[in-house]
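User: What would this chain look like folded?
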Amino acid sequence: MGRPKGAHTRTTWLEDGRWTLWQCMRVLRIFTLPQLRAVTGCSAHNAKRYVRCLEQAGYVRRLRERQRGVAGSHTVFALIEDTGPVAPRGQTDGKRLFVHYCATCHGDAGQGDGQNAYNLDPPPPDFHESLKVHQPSYWRQIIEGGSVAVGRSPQCPPWGRTLASSDLDALVAYLEVLANPSPAQK
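Assistant: Here's the prediction, encoded as structure tokens.
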């Protein structure tokens, strides 16, 4: 499946692919990965990653495992929760984006201890404390326009032109997880 006509960024293409996979799952309800691939034309890797993400988020569950040693046997999945025409995004999207764009300075856990943090003055904030003070709209403003957008140091770059709106939403959702970790994460 090539990049759709009019898709100018990889993000748009990925979102179209996810949407197509999601619509296929909504129609089939019970499916295997080869069925998804046959209908959508996406790669095995992308189908497997998206289904695994949805499984972790609780939208999909396994009905039957693949039988090892049996030719043509595949894991059978079932759709548990249907969000309608909008494809769900797993929490893993926000984490993946955070690790790619933010962790260099802010650290993997958001404690301001990334590998580049020692070069910055002032140092990046510890999200475990600073995220509890501000609303998610404030965090989105910083991600979108850089820290200058809220009158802070110019060292945090603006990501508003790089990331799609849905990616910004996923990052903000992940920051909420960092701000309010579950007891198992502490």
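DSSP finds eight helices and three strands in the chain. If you want, I can go into more detail on any region.
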